[in-house]
Design goal:
Strand order of the largest sheet: 5-6-4-14-15-16-13-17
Bound molecules: flavin-adenine dinucleotide, glycine
CATH topology of the largest domain: FAD/NAD(P)-binding domain
Helix content: 25-40%
GO molecular function, one term: flavin adenine dinucleotide binding
Largest sheet: 8 strands, mixed
CATH superfamily of the largest domain: FAD/NAD(P)-binding domain
Distance between the termini: 21 Å
Organism: Pseudochelatococcus contaminans
Pathway: Cofactor biosynthesis; thiamine diphosphate biosynthesis
Shape: globular
Number of helices: 8
Protein name: Glycine oxidase
GO biological process, one term: thiamine biosynthetic process
Radius of gyration: 21 Å
Length: 374
């Protein structure tokens, strides 16, 4: 990148992607200003389940995402420790691992196929017998077996966003909430700044990190607009006694995942719907989440239902993130993280901050360049 150290960076969007980048840039001494149309951290970053599930979430045809996802898994422990120290807020990185359970022969057949895909990709996974599943999670319904992913952990994504909201300004970043960026301004083929709150704000670099809203920011053209759409997810939370939780690991079963939090909340997710920015909670959505959760963990029947919500995953055309430079000098992309943006937060912040600070183009980021959509 062709920028000077003293030149300021503007970040559009204060989700975990925008805030983590702001934190690393500010920590390195770079002037950085973040704008969000609402309160920071209340988009998909608030809605997520916080799974760091590179192995469990592998889908056929998405093997090319593994290098990025596995690098981010490696970065997570240090990233979490540094963030906790910088913010004074615990982000609850839990390292119990993930179980993907089968509850009948059909599901077992399907899981065995999934295991073969994971093993072919050389991932650290193993098959567990019913007794081994029971030993780890005694309250699960009778499982016929499970895939054990000992390196797929979880973090409390709401605490993550809160910690970044503290750490970024402490390092020197300025965060403007309730201030939508109306327009990204380009002159003579390069970025000059943005318009927000009725004023022009100059910058040599503008980072587009507006999650599912990234394609709708003013000033983007057909040439520069990222192909990102909202993928709606409905979720709910049940309340377990914190001192006697029904689950300790993250558990996947047909149609759902279950994520137990330190405070006793049990997150149940999620639907994946192509409905634009429709934020409604539907009977069908809640029904399928509860039915599938109850089938895997019958003890939930007694638990209070304490929250339902929706969120919008930023899904790109190929469901992979868009990272780095595009066709306009100074416009940088950090968007399209779809189902894995919490997992990919450390690696995105690392790759994009080094690009802006040092002009370093990490080969790992090459497959995720904007140019692949041409
Ligand atoms: P967001 O958090 O959505 O932030 C974008 C921000 O941009 C918002 O705050 C918004 O207000 C702001 N903005 C929009 N327009 C403007 C504008 N004009 N001006 C200024 N600001 C603007 N990922 C995982 O890794 N693990 C999971 O377990 C997981 N579970 C998920 C479950 C659900 C139901 C959902 C919806 C997502 C899940 N994800 C998960 C995905 C993850 O949440 C996202 O990939 C990640 O949060 C994207 O972060 P972001 O900062 O890009 O977007
Ligand atoms: N990664 C889980 C989800 O997007 O629902």
């Amino acid at each position: 990148m062709n920028t000077r150290v003293s030149e300021s960076v503007i970040i559009v969007g204060a989700g975990v992607i925008g805030l983590s980048l702001a934190w690393l840039l500010a920590r390195a001494g770079r002037p950085v200003v973040v704008f969000d149309k609402a309160e920071a951290g209340q988009g998909a970053s608030h809605a997520a389940a916080g799974m760091l599930a590179a192995c469990t979430e592998l889908e056929p045809g998405e093997e090319w995402l593994l290098s990025l996802n596995r690098r981010s898994q490696q970065l997570w422990p240090t990233f979490a420790a540094e963030l906790e120290s910088a913010s004074g807020i615990a982000v609850d990185l839990r390292e119990e691992g993930t179980l993907h359970v089968a509850l009948n022969a059909d599901e077992q057949g399907k899981l065995r196929h999934h295991l073969a895909l994971q093993e072919k990709a050389d991932l650290p996974v193993e098959w567990l017998s019913p007794a081994e599943v029971r030993a780890r999670e005694p309250f699960l319904a009778n499982a016929t077996g499970a895939i054990w992913s000992p390196q797929d952990h979880q973090v409390d994504n709401r605490k993550l966003a809160a910690a970044l909201r503290v750490a970024a300004p402490r390092a020197g970043a300025v965060v403007h909430e309730h201030t939508p960026v109306d327009k990204i301004v380009v002159a003579d083929g390069r970025i000059t700044g943005i318009e927000a709150g009725g004023a022009f704000h100059p910058a040599s670099v503008v980072v587009l990190a507006a999650g599912a809203w990234s394609r709708s920011i003013g000033g983007l053209t057909q040439e520069t607009r990222p192909p990102v759409r909202p993928v709606k997810g409905q979720m709910l939370a049940l309340s377990m006694p914190a001192d006697a939780p029904l689950l300790r690991h993250v558990v996947w079963a047909a149609g759902i995942y279950l994520v137990p939090r330190v405070d006793g909340r049990l997150i149940v997710g999620a639907t994946a719907e192509e409905r634009g920015f429709d934020g409604s909670i539907t009977a069908g959505g809640v029904l399928s989440l509860l039915q599938n959760a109850w089938r895997a963990l019958p003890g939930i029947e007694e638990l209070p239902l304490i929250e339902t919500w929706t969120g919008f995953r930023p899904g790109s055309r190929d469901d992979a993130p868009i990272l780095g430079e595009g066709p306009v000098e100074g416009l940088v992309y950090a968007t399209g993280h779809h189902r894995n943006g919490i997992l990919q937060t450390p690696v995105t912040a690392d790759i994009v901050s080094r690009l802006i600070l040092e002009g370093a183009r990490d080969p790992l980021a090459e497959p995720y360049a904007f140019g692949r959509f041409k």
